[in-house]
Every structure is written in C-alpha cells, then in structure tokens.
C-alpha cells in the first residue's frame, strides 16, 4: 500500500503525463490489462482515460485495472485514472518513505 506522502509524490509526477490508454464502450478486457501491465513495467506510472461512452463506472474500471495488473491506484480525477506499479527492470521513481 502507498502512503499519503507517496501518493502525493506520484500525483505530482503524473501531472504532466498524457493518458496512454482509453477505456471505451467495451470496458476492460484481458488484452488491455496485459498491455497496461507491459506499459507499467516500462514506465511505472501512467494515466488511463475513461471515455464517456464507457458503460462501466470509472471507479469499477480503476478497480479492475488495478487488480488485473497488480498496480496501485494513485488517484481518480475526472475521467482519468493514475496507476503505479514498481518496475522490476526499469526502476525510475524513488518513492519517499
């Protein structure tokens, strides 16, 4: 679990990022989760936008993505979800304690 301080740090790091994935009408599927896992391994921190035509609530989308990719939900703001997962190979971010 992330502490409040770590989440604050990650939010500031994510601020300038653009969403890489979009969740639309089809909702979340296995293929998307796999791609997000790979992207998280490469980047550690990413934004995903939930499109207006998505039939699933953005909080449920965040839960599904977080469970599927074993990532932490940093924040859900508007229709944007910020996910973090420590990379095994490409560690870039040093979280505060």
From TrEMBL:
The keyword Acyltransferase does not apply. Residues 1-96 form the CRM domain. This is Ribosome assembly RNA-binding protein YhbY. It comes from Bacillus seohaeanensis. Gene3D superfamilies: YhbY-like. Keywords: RNA-binding. InterPro entries: RNA-binding_CRM, RNA-binding_domain, RNA-binding_YhbY, YhbY-like_sf. SMART domains: CRS1_YhbY. Pfam families: CRS1_YhbY. The keyword rRNA processing does not apply. PROSITE patterns: CRM. NCBIfam families: RNA_bind_YhbY.
